[in-house]
Design a protein that fits this description.
alpha/beta; seven-stranded mixed beta sheet; two-stranded parallel ribbon; 9 strands; about 30% helix
């Protein structure tokens, strides 16, 4: 892949169709008792303009938004610009998503990914050369209970809209690196053409205090074609939180390894 070139950066103008589909997905999910209400669908989390101007475009991936994004005491405290917006004002809706990490982010979850991103020169919060976005592969709709506890019927309704929408969004965002810290079975949802098989990238055999792990922590990678550009997909096993079974220093080390893996290919 070293002879391949990086195309021109994506344009924000091409997000309109994905935003409209996001709201339609949210409205169809109204029949589900599990849909969090009041709420809005979350197409992505983070400053999209800063992401588009980043030297390394990095996207992280979860399953669907947490119910904690819409606290019962103040459902729109994390997305104040989206309160009473609905699908009528797409510009204001995108502003609310872009302002998320400057407003009141759910740090317990996103903070667990931040050291990995810092190792790549990226951050959700700013202060690094690249600004990172978060997306969800199964659905942009927050649910109660969480994804693993949803009924198969509810999951099927959400996935029918959510998985194609996630693929469409990534074609617009044109990431260079996609980081997934989910259950491994969800890798089967990725429909982008594979340029090579999944391969081992790095492994931690020992814990931070030098004890041998019962099971090594392994990070795998695979190149997929997103639109017309090769993209490095990286799988990092999750526990209660993304990369929760390794230390912050180990996460930074993995981030540096990911950045080097991408750079060597180009």
């Amino acid at each position: 892949m070293s002879d391949a070139g990086i195309g021109s950066p994506p344009s924000l103008d091409t997000l309109d169709a994905a935003v409209s589909k996001t709201w339609r997905s949210f409205e169809r999910a109204a029949v589900l008792g599990s849909r969090v209400t009041p709420a809005v669908p979350i197409l992505f989390f983070g400053d999209v303009d800063a992401y588009l101007g980043s030297p390394l475009r990095v996207v992280t991936v979860g399953l669907n938004p947490s119910l904690r994004e819409f606290p019962s005491s103040d459902p729109f405290q994390r997305f104040p610009l989206a309160a009473d917006t609905g699908s009528r004002d797409l510009g204001r809706y995108l502003e609310s998503l872009s302002a998320y990490f400057r407003t009141d982010p759910y740090d317990k979850w996103f903070g667990s990914l931040e050291p990995l991103l810092n190792g790549m020169g990226g951050s959700f919060y700013g202060g690094e050369s690249s600004t990172v976005l978060h997306t969800d592969i199964c659905s942009p709709v927050a649910t109660d209970p969480t994804w693993s506890r949803l009924s198969e019927a509810d999951q099927a309704v959400l996935v029918a809209d959510g998985v194609p929408l996630w693929h469409e969004l990534l074609e617009v965002l044109q990431p260079n690196v996609v980081v997934l810290s989910v259950a491994r079975r969800h890798l089967g949802r990725i429909a982008f053409g594979r340029l090579a098989p999944w391969e081992f990238i790095h492994r931690f055999d020992y814990t931070a205090d030098g004890a041998l792990r019962d099971r090594p922590y392994e990070m795998d990678g695979c190149w997929h074609l997103v639109g017309v550009e090769p993209c490095l997909f990286v799988f990092c096993p999750a526990s209660q939180t993304p990369l929760g079974s390794i230390t912050k220093n180990q996460r930074r080390e993995l981030g540096s390894i990911v950045a080097d893996t991408y750079a060597r290919a180009w």
